[in-house]
């Protein structure tokens, strides 16, 4: 059986899915205000493997969200995925986080704009067609009144920053689907299996998440 373990940790949603032939058979996830990935991730993996009645050696690959997204979340997910691939000698598959998020939308017209919050008015975003073909590359951009003004089609905005973005993105063709906030490993199942079938894998030793922006560590100011 073609079992692939899918790991999505790019946002507040810590999400794990086990898929067979590209279809999710078990999914565990939790989205909390405080990131719980380090505590939940390996527990979810163990629970899913046990509940499915299989062993880790039955996996043919591990898929991980490649970003963009939370630096810490991506590091935790990629580290876990690499560890499993090393131990089991199986391939690692990297899945576009924004494409996974876009996969949660089913439309017949217009374009999908998945966005992940990058603090203040900045977001990570891309534009996809209804069949998930990328129409505009991934950007880290500051949302302003004239953002996306070159698109005349209906734009369906999804992600965890709709509330702040809808205050400035007010054109008639802009539609906000507020119920869709986070990417999930559930939607990774079909995407990762498609990649597996064409051997679209990454080097386990050298793969790094797609952070999009440099991670900055700030040093607290000394108290006087």
Quick structural overview:
The chain has 5 helices and 10 strands.
Structure, explained:
The chain is an alpha/beta fold and about 220 residues long. The protein is about 25% helix and about 30% strand. The strands form 2 sheets. A 5-stranded mixed sheet has the order 3-2-1-4-5, sandwiched between helices. Strands 8-7-6-9-10 form a 5-stranded mixed sheet. Helix 2 links the parallel strand 4 (about 60-65) and strand 5 (about 90-95). It starts with a strand and ends in a 27-residue tail after the last helix.
Sketch the topology as an H/E string, one letter per element. EEEHEHEHEEEEHEH
- Secondary structural class: alpha/beta
Q: Helical amount among residues, as a percent range?
A: 25-40%
**First-residue to last-residue Cα separation:** 63 Å
What is the mean predicted local confidence, pLDDT? Answer: 92
Could you give a short account of the major beta sheet? Answer: 5 strands, mixed
How much is the radius of gyration in Å? 18 Å
Give the strand order, joined by hyphens, for the main sheet: 3-2-1-4-5
The portion of residues forming beta strands comes to 25-35%
Number of helices: 5
Poorly predicted parts = 215-224
Give the overall shape, derived from the CA principal axes. Answer: globular
Using DSSP, what is the number of strands? 10
């Amino acid at each position: 059986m073609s079992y692939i373990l899918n790991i999505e940790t790019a946002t507040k949603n810590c999400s794990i899915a086990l898929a067979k032939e590209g279809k999710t058979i078990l999914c565990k996830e939790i989205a909390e205000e405080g990131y719980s990935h380090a505590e939940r991730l390996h527990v979810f993996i163990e629970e899913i493997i046990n509940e499915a009645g299989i062993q880790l050696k039955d996996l043919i690959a591990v898929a991980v969200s490649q970003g963009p997204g939370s630096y810490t979340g991506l590091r935790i997910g990629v580290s876990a995925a690499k560890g499993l691939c090393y131990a089991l000698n199986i391939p690692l598959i990297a899945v576009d986080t924004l494409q996974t998020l876009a996969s949660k939308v089913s439309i017949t017209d217009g374009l999908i704009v998945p966005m992940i919050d990058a603090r203040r008015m900045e977001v990570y975003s891309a534009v996809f067609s209804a069949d998930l073909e990328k129409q505009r590359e991934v950007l880290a951009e500051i949302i302003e009144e004239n953002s996306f003004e070159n698109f005349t089609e209906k734009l369906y905005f999804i992600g965890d920053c709709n509330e702040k973005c809808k205050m400035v993105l007010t054109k008639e063709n802009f539609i906000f689907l507020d119920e869709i906030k986070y990417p999930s490993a559930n939607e990774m199942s079909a995407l990762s299996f498609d990649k597996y079938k064409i051997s679209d894998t990454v080097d386990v030793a050298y793969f790094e998440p797609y952070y999009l922006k440099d991670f900055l560590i700030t040093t607290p100011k000394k108290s006087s």
